[in-house]
């Protein structure tokens, strides 16, 4: 509760400052958003240690941007996020970037960004920080929402080159990026719910994304790549280092109408792990299709079918059950999602979401210690948000 009060005070202060600065320094833009929510699940614990319901769902973001010259832009954001056991609500630097646009013409533009940068993966990874810009309260499984490593996927410290250009009927957007080596021990220990007995480092981070727009942006397609090398170095010198090479690909497609949209995305994650001289490979995938309908200026609704498989070669889980004895439903999840949004003004939003789930591949084991997971379960979420 203290975190929420402090965050609300910070947001109120920033809102007041933005009004003052808008008159004193017109080139400085300050914006923010605050959201608080409630979640209730049946059958399995999700984002909490019980199924009694929790209001421990909260996020606040404060961002600012200013132009140092017509070609140079600086932007950054502070964020506090409390999502049950997956995030602890501490205020942190979400991103901070220096953007130099060295070429701009009627044909297109190109530039370079450096700093802590948003990773362009799929349509929504770089806008997942604000509920107003997400496709729902919870992101689809394509974005690994339930893994607890949101920080690692959202932003990386490094550099990105970008360009926009028009060729015939297609407007293309291209981003190529590199991320420097970083210590990710804290994030992975929080995701695992336990200490790992060593340090986790991530390096060789590479990312790329191309998005094409047709017919004035009413048809969009995209291909994204995000990959790197993860190394677990145990504190015990006699224990070998474990190395994990991961490559993540996302294929995106979207059709927009004046009254709604249809979006579909597919993710393939290819991993190779080496430990004590033994090598193993695996492939996981996820996909969703979502239809959104704008009923009027205030009301909109959406329906989503979301698939998540921890092993694309064992999507029903029979092989894993035979090898480990674990129920096969722990290897997949199939979610049916219905959502509504009411926007009484451009600043306020009320969001509601219901999930009916077959499978527990999206359920965190550390939230369900000592209990048997149920294959069929439901979840309801409610969120109220304000932005300025």
Describe this structure in words.
With 388 residues, this protein is mainly β. It has a single domain, classed as Beta Barrel (Porin). 11% of the residues lie in helices and 57% in strands. It contains 4 helices and 17 strands. It has helices spanning 2-24, 150-154, 185-192, 318-324, and strands at residues 28-42, 54-67, 72-83, 88-105, 108-118, 155-167, 170-179, 182-183, 198-214, 219-234, 242-257, 260-275, 278-294, 299-309, 332-342, 348-359, 376-387. It has a 16-stranded antiparallel barrel with strand order 1-2-3-4-5-6-7-9-10-11-12-13-14-15-16-17. The longest helix is centred in the N-terminal third of the chain and has 23 residues, at 2-24. The protein is globular and about 60 Å long. The chain starts with a helix and ends with a strand. 33% of the residues are buried. Mean pLDDT is 89; it is low at 5-24. Keywords: Signal. Residues 1-24 form the signal peptide.
Core attributes:
signal, 388 residues, Porin, 16-stranded antiparallel beta barrel, mainly beta
Strand fraction equals: over 45%
Which stretches are poorly predicted, pLDDT < 50 over at least 5 residues? 5-24
Oligomer: single chain
How many helices? The count is: 4
Q: What's the end-to-end separation, in Å?
A: 23 Å
CATH class descriptor name: Mainly Beta
Rg measurement, Å: 21 Å
Query: What is the structural class?
Result: mainly beta
Q: Label the overall shape.
A: globular
Reported CATH architecture: Beta Barrel
Q: In total, how many beta strands?
A: 17
Q: What is the CATH topology?
A: Porin
Helix content: 10-25%
The biggest beta sheet, please? 16 strands, antiparallel, barrel
CATH homologous group name: Porin
Order of helices and strands: HEEEEEHEEEHEEEEEEHEEE
Overall residue-averaged pLDDT value? 89
Signal peptide: 1-24
Keywords: Signal
């Amino acid at each position: 509760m203290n975190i929420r009060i402090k965050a609300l005070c910070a947001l109120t202060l920033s809102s007041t400052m933005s009004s003052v600065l808008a008159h004193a320094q017109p080139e400085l833009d300050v914006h923010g958003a605050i959201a608080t929510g409630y979640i209730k699940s049946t059958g399995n614990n999700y984002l909490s240690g019980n199924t009694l319901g929790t209001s421990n769902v909260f996020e606040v973001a404060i961002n600012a941007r200013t132009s140092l010259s017509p070609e140079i832009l600086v932007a950054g954001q502070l964020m506090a996020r409390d999502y049950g056991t997956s995030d602890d609500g501490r205020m942190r630097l979400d991103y901070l970037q220096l953007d130099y646009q060295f070429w701009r013409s009627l044909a297109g533009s190109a530039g370079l960004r450096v700093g802590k940068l948003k990773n362009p993966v799929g349509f929504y990874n770089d806008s997942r920080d604000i509920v107003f810009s997400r496709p729902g309260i919870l992101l689809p499984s394509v974005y690994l929402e339930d893994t607890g490593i949101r920080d690692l996927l959202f932003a990386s410290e490094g550099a990105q080159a970008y360009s926009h250009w028009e060729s015939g009927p297609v407007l293309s957007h291209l981003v190529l990026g590199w991320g420097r080596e970083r210590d990710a021990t804290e994030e992975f220990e929080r995701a695992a719910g336990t200490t790992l007995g060593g340090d986790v480092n991530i390096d060789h981070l590479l990312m790329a994304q191309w998005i094409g727009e047709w017919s004035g942006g009413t048809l969009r397609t995209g291909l994204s790549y995000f990959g790197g090398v993860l190394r677990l170095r145990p504190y015990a010198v006699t224990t070998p280092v474990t190395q994990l090479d991961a490559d993540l690909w996302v294929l995106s497609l979207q059709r927009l109408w004046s009254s709604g949209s249809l979006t579909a995305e597919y993710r393939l994650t290819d991993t190779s792990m080496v430990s004590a001289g033994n090598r193993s490979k695996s492939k996981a995938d996820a996909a969703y299709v979502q239809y959104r309908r704008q009923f009027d200026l205030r009301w909109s609704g959406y329906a989503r079918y979301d698939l998540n498989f921890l092993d694309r070669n064992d999507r029903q889980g029979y092989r894993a059950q035979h090898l480990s004895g674990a129920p096969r439903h722990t290897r997949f999840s199939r979610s049916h999602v219905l959502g509504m949004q009411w926007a009484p003004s451009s600043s306020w939003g009320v969001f509601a979401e219901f999930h009916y789930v077959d499978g527990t591949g999206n359920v965190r084991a550390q939230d369900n210690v000592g209990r048997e997971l149920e294959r069929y379960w439901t979840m309801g979420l409610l969120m109220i948000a304000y932005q300025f």
